[in-house]
Design a protein that fits this description.
It is a multi-pass membrane protein. It comes from Seriola lalandi dorsalis. Keywords: Endoplasmic reticulum, Membrane, Transmembrane, Transmembrane helix. This protein is mainly alpha-helical. The protein has a domain of 139 residues. The chain is built from eight helices and no strands. Helix 2 packs antiparallel against helix 7. It is elongated.
Length: 203
């Protein structure tokens, strides 16, 4: 299942990925005008009409001896999506660990376990309020979906340039964080990286 998802994200099968992405985007865009119940029921009706029509068509070909009678959706029916007991237990434990880790992180942020991290979270939430005025959650979901199907492929094709650009940004962020950290500790120049500190020049 993971390999199939990665194949979709990296456009291994262009036609299938295009169909999936188009269907998801159109479905999300329709939520701007219709309720989710209407969208789900309409999509379900469209899919059922298509699959039943194809099934009847193949059955008719078999009756007229123009086909082998093979089920047109046999590959989908035979697709194994079940989990063994060990797999289900593993995924459940991972989900519990992720939830508990998220709760622990939020607890530390809201109750100021680390002042610097809580201030960063405060600024982030302040910026999110402006983002909420510009667009809603559905718009962000559509943008995230498009980014999911475009950014990984772009990164694979331009990995060296992207890594170089991100490295420069990370260096600037580290400098800013170091400056704020030194200000929080009372200021002062950055520590001398040479062993034993600065040494007098020899004439």
């Amino acid at each position: 299942m993971d390999s199939r998802v990665m194949d979709l994200i990296y456009w291994k099968d262009t036609e299938r990925t295009g169909m999936v992405l188009t269907g998801l985007v159109v479905g999300l865009l329709s939520l701007f005008q219709l309720s989710i119940i209407t969208v789900v029921s309409t999509v379900s009706l469209a899919v059922m009409c298509f699959t039943i029509s194809v099934r009847i068509y193949y059955q008719l070909l078999y009756v007229l001896s123009w086909g082998d009678g093979q089920h047109p959706f046999k590959s989908y029916l035979d697709l194994d999506i079940s989990f063994s007991g060990e797999q289900a237990d593993l995924y459940m434990r991972k989900a519990i660990v992720m939830v508990l880790s998220a709760v622990d992180t939020l607890k530390s942020l809201f109750f100021v376990g680390n002042l610097f991290d809580s201030l960063k979270f405060l600024v982030l939430m302040y910026l999110v309020t402006y983002l909420g005025d510009l667009c809603n959650g559905l718009t962000l979901l559509i943008i995230s979906l498009i980014a999911l199907f475009s950014l990984p492929l772009f990164y694979r094709q331009r990995q060296e340039q992207v890594d170089s650009f991100i490295g420069k940004i990370q260096a600037h962020i580290d400098n800013i964080k170091d400056t704020f950290r030194r200000l929080a500790q009372g200021g002062g120049p950055p520590p001398d990286p040479t062993p034993g500190g600065a040494k007098p020049k020899v004439q």
